[in-house]
Amino acid sequence: MQRGLIICVLMGLLMYPPSSANAQLITQNEVKAAVNSLNFIRGLHSKGGRLKLAVVYDPSVAISQNDADVMMQVLQKQSSLKVGSLQPKLVPVSELQTLLDYNVVMVARGVRDYYTGISSLLQGGNHIFAMSTDESCVVSHFCVLAVQPGQGVNILLNEEIMKRQGFDVNAAFRFMVKKI
């Protein structure tokens, strides 16, 4: 009887692992898709031919650090887009006040507690495009675009936030994304 109970518990753990073990890591292909999506954004202007891109992360959260590392690997290999050459920089959540210096903000997972602070910097006509690897950033109306880790590349687009920030996308891109 006790042995049967132990087997049932072990089977349950295998079938339904704890949520932290359930989190999928972001891949380079997913980050490339997010970065390449910037080519389809209308209203995104580089400053002097350079597109300053902040990778916002929380160094104390493992999934956030992992996302930031993968983002920087991709961004350092992909030096330019149609809108300008990329200048990526890691920005820990302790330095959110520096975001006004950037054209694009890529928000890693694990910084949900800082969404309000990030969002307040993106308001007021600052014209900063916010994207994330966390779906909740788009669903909660803090980011314009998110790439979901998982099978294939799923891109979420918050049209309300996009318009409020002064951006638009071309029609072809609109068909490739899931709109929220």
Q: Quick gist of this model?
A:
The chain is an alpha/beta fold and 180 residues long.
- Structural class, please? alpha/beta
User: What is the number of strand segments?
Assistant: 10
Number of helices: 8
The rounded distance between the terminal residues' Cα atoms is: 50 Å
Low-confidence stretches: 1-22
Strand order within the widest beta sheet: 3-4-2-5-6-7-8-10
Strand content: 15-25%
Oligomer: single chain
Instruction: From the alpha carbons, calculate the radius of gyration and give it in angstroms.
Output: 18 Å
Helix-strand pattern, N to C?
HHHEEHEEEHEHEEHEHE
Task: Name a few traits of the molecule.
globular, disordered N terminus, 180 residues, 38% helix, two-stranded antiparallel sheet, 10 strands, alpha/beta
Structural summary, described in words:
The chain contains eight helices and ten strands. It has about 180 residues and is of the alpha/beta class. Helix 5 links the parallel strand 5 (about 105) and strand 6 (about 130). Residues about 1-20 have low confidence and may be disordered.
Helix-strand blueprint:
Elements: H1 2-15, H2 19-22, H3 28-37, E1 41-42, E2 50-57, H4 62-77, E3 80-81, E4 84-92, E5 104-107, H5 115-122, E6 129-132, H6 135-139, E7 145-148, E8 154-157, H7 159-164, E9 168-169, H8 171-176, E10 178-179
Parallel strand pairs: 2-4, 2-5, 5-6, 6-7, 8-10
Antiparallel strand pairs: 1-9, 3-4, 7-8
